[in-house]
Amino acid sequence: MPTGPRIAIDAMGGDSGPAAMLAGAARALRKDKTLHFLVFGDEAAVRAELANHKTLTPNVTIVHSPESISSEEKPSQAIRRARTTSMGMAIGAVKDGHADAAVSAGNTGALMAMSKLALRTMPGIDRPALAALLPTMGEHDCVMLDLGANTECDAQNLVQFAVMGSAYARTVLSISKPRVKLLNIGTEELKGTDELKEAAALLRDANYLPLKFDGFTEGDQLSRGNIDVVVTDGFSGNIALKTAEGTARFVTDLLRRAFKSSLRSKAGFALSKPALNLLKVHLDPNNHNGAVFLGLNGLIVKSHGGANPKGVANAIFVASSMVRNDITRRIGEDLDNFRAHAFAAAEQAAQ
Amino acid sequence: MPTGPRIAIDAMGGDSGPAAMLAGAARALRKDKTLHFLVFGDEAAVRAELANHKTLTPNVTIVHSPESISSEEKPSQAIRRARTTSMGMAIGAVKDGHADAAVSAGNTGALMAMSKLALRTMPGIDRPALAALLPTMGEHDCVMLDLGANTECDAQNLVQFAVMGSAYARTVLSISKPRVKLLNIGTEELKGTDELKEAAALLRDANYLPLKFDGFTEGDQLSRGNIDVVVTDGFSGNIALKTAEGTARFVTDLLRRAFKSSLRSKAGFALSKPALNLLKVHLDPNNHNGAVFLGLNGLIVKSHGGANPKGVANAIFVASSMVRNDITRRIGEDLDNFRAHAFAAAEQAAQ
Question: EC number(s) per UniProt (chains A, B) (predicted)?
Answer without folding.
Answer: 2.3.1.274
